[in-house]
Automatic annotation (TrEMBL), chain A:
<keyword id="KW-0503">Monooxygenase</keyword>
<dbReference type="InterPro" id="IPR001128">
    <property type="entry name" value="Cyt_P450"/>
</dbReference>
<keyword id="KW-0479">Metal-binding</keyword>
<dbReference type="GO" id="GO:0020037">
    <property type="term" value="F:heme binding"/>
</dbReference>
<keyword id="KW-0408">Iron</keyword>
<keyword id="KW-0560">Oxidoreductase</keyword>
<dbReference type="GO" id="GO:0005506">
    <property type="term" value="F:iron ion binding"/>
</dbReference>
<dbReference type="GO" id="GO:0016705">
    <property type="term" value="F:oxidoreductase activity, acting on paired donors, with incorporation or reduction of molecular oxygen"/>
</dbReference>
<dbReference type="Pfam" id="PF00067">
    <property type="entry name" value="p450"/>
</dbReference>
From TrEMBL, chain B:
<keyword id="KW-0249">Electron transport</keyword>
<keyword id="KW-0408">Iron</keyword>
<keyword id="KW-0003">3Fe-4S</keyword>
<dbReference type="Pfam" id="PF13370">
    <property type="entry name" value="Fer4_13"/>
</dbReference>
<keyword id="KW-0411">Iron-sulfur</keyword>
<keyword id="KW-0479">Metal-binding</keyword>
<keyword id="KW-0813">Transport</keyword>
<dbReference type="InterPro" id="IPR001080">
    <property type="entry name" value="3Fe4S_ferredoxin"/>
</dbReference>
<protein>
    <recommendedName>
        <fullName>Ferredoxin</fullName>
    </recommendedName>
</protein>
Amino acid sequence: MIASETASSEDLPHGMPYHRDTRHDPPAALMALQDQPLRRMRYYPDDVEGWLVTGHALARQVLADPRFLTGERFVRSPTDLPHFFVSSSEHVPPGFFFFKDPPEHTRLRRKVTGVFTLKRMRDLEPRIADIVDDRIAAMKDAGSGADLFQEFALPVPSLVICEMLGVPYADRDHFQRTSSAIFDQAMPIEQRNEATGELFGYVHGLVPAKRARPGDDLLSTLAADDDLTDDEVAGIGMILLLGGHETTAHMFGLGTLALLEHPDQLARLRSEPELMTGAVEELLRFLTVAHAGMMRIVKEDAEIDGRILRAGEYVTVAPHAVNRDPAYFDRPDELDLGRNSQGHMAFGHGIHQCIGQQLARVEMRIGFARLLEAFPGLRLAVPADQVPLRTDMFIYGVGALPVAW
Amino acid sequence: MRIAADRERCTSSGMCALTAPELFDQDDEDGRVVVLDDAPLGADTGDAAAAIELCPSGALTAVDEHQD
Ligand code: HEM
Ligand code: SF4
């Protein structure tokens, strides 16, 4: 028997709650919806009904199912903020493979997966360690009271992805401003589309020189590939630049805040540094900074958990709720750096699972380890409740993190 | 237990090589899975099961020995 989807639709939740009650937990109103891990909800701006997934098992199922697509035109948002995807599809740059389905997604993604393997990331470790140490030195120069977000969290991943791509870090003001506008869901969509065009134009402008005088970097490799147009090269470069810095930056910012607010866990990590690999996974799970919801559109009617998801309907997976699902994780609301957090969905699931995850892991492992080593007395320079938080950004995190030592 | 890998489905996440490095690697070309040992024994079978479970694309499956 398939449940009818017409009954009492007035009671449906309006969108995915995003107002936070605490600094580190998903919204309580969102968690309250987990009693039905797959449920109907209304989308913005036109109240059309769609789906919300908050359970771990169903999230895995939906995200791995080829009937749920990202290459469609997204015109609705799961919150009353214009989601990153909304209306963006008409502005989606060619090559921006997140918004592609197979076989295009496969063709484009495989152009770059070779440089993000575990092996390649291991080779990068010494260089990442140098970058981390430089930023620690910069923090020390700035002195106690420095903003860890601006001095450390944002520059480390930005410098790393710039070097990999061959994008001049000197241009960071431009690409950090445009990326943050693209991710700022509180900003009017027109302005964000403009920023998308600007960032695309910026990367596009680098391509001819990369072809004429190739360097030892990814943009040069892509520019030399006859199978890719300049537009595609720019789109791939843009998705990596966007994905590569704000995400890890917010894991450093919010992650440091979480450690400082869990002194027992921090003390444990300091005395048992071998916990770091697992600690990074647990921070990824606990904080789930990519909190805006993973949206898909149903290609053809699909039966999931005894319900029919109709072609054309929207489905949003709430990864921060999924990562606190008590059916999958014991004591999900506890930050426990010694636990096994395997199976968390901070990097997504399915064919779009994060391409930079092994890079992000190395950056965090080295970054957190050296940060704790360099500042044995690290503490907040302001009361925790005065740390500015960005709940309306596509990626959740701190706006600044003043620290003392 | 025997492991089968479908390289057409593989999305090069590296999760298998991270979880069970003694069983999986990624190729240099586009990071797709390379199975180093498709018939794990003893303690490695646990790692193999975890890798299969964590694979985001469904590229890895455990094949029933008796079907060979
Ligand atoms: C801790 C840091 C990071 C987090 C939490 C994160 C999170 C995610 C998530 C959740 C997705 C899947 C979204 C979906 O399926 O709807 C994703 C995809 C992606 N990420 Fe990351 N990411 C991180 C770091 C990075 C880095 C360092 C890079 C670049 C080198 C990157 C590049 C990408 C790209 C290109 C995609 C799209 C993949 C595709 O569509 O096939 N990310 N990321
Ligand atoms: S875990 Fe799956 S998708 Fe990832 S590299 Fe291994 S086989 Fe490929």
